[in-house]
Design goal:
Order of helices and strands: EHHEEEEEEEHEHEHEHEEHEHEEHHEHE
Number of helices: 11
Largest sheet: 9 strands, mixed
CATH topology of the largest domain: Rossmann fold
Radius of gyration: 20 Å
Structural class: alpha/beta
CATH superfamily of the largest domain: NAD(P)-binding Rossmann-like Domain
Strand content: 25-35%
Low-confidence stretches: 263-285
Number of domains: 2
CATH class of the largest domain: Alpha Beta
Distance between the termini: 21 Å
Number of strands: 18
CATH architecture of the largest domain: 3-Layer(aba) Sandwich
Amino acid sequence: MTLILSNEEVERLLEVRDCIDVLEDAYREQAAGRAISQLRMDTEVPIGQGNHVKEFEFKTMVGILPKRGIAALRCSATIQQWLREFGSLRTDYVRGPGGRLVGLVQLFSFETCEPLAIFPDSYLQKVRVAATSAIGAKYLARSDSRCMGLLGSGWQASAHVEALCAVRPLELIKVYSPNSAHRSEFAETMSKRTGISIVAVDSPAEVFDADIVIAATNAKEPVIYGKYLKRGTHFCSIGPYEVDGEAIEKADVVVMHSRERYRTHVAGEGQFGTLVHGNPYVPSEYDWEHHILSRLDVNEVPLLEDILTGRSRARTDESQISFFMNVQGLGLQFAAVGARVYELAMQTGVGKEIPTEWLTQTTNT
């Protein structure tokens, strides 16, 4: 039988601390050569003309984790639009019928090849990004960190509050986003949920008076500025556009999640011509290739797995500024966390089952 889960069931099953634990173990497996992440593929097709250009994007990520007996495929079909809102350049999804979006995780047995489970990627996507940021802070931020500055008050930001609280005994979180009403509501809601003092601040500069600074936004221009960074700060971004050049240059320790975004430019050719990553609304100075590659030799920057296993050194001085570039997800994350979701669902009897025969065949492939 193949298990079908809803996004709500996945959320009830998976806790942030669980996610952090299984990801740490998966990174160690990958560092030892016992796991693999296939290159993520984003196929983008422009829709519309002039100032109304949107992009259809079909994204695939594959990870194999033999230790858990799982191969995972994460795929999504989305339409994105670029817009300026509250003075900030950002992207947002165009929702489908019923206000819904499409993203799926499919788990396959590493031993029998059978499809084990299928479920939406939304909650797992949110929590695995935040858990990865938390792992970065666990190994790079000062151990006495008590205050976090948070840029963003949306979907990803909420998960980052819970994940960072799991790895550091935070006492105060300062949050800023351009929408004043939304950041105030966010601070009140997350304070009640976590029991931690979370305050909305009126300017982004106030966020930087903190031990840890996290950008969890959908911004397509910098929100972390080097001019505000204090000595001893650990900062993290989940998007390539969120950090300005001065911040990158001020970092004494830089760690990446993946190098592939900065090494590989994949285009497809067909009836639409050559499809390339990028968008006409992005100012050239914020182009990721110019912005990152002009300041870092990515082949020399350690990966998160290198820090976990001690192959590379983390912070060696409390005054150092550290930067974790949590950009470009890995298929391995979906294999690791998906395997845990499947395990918990089978233990608790959550979800619905369908005959595996519906999804398999007897003829040759």
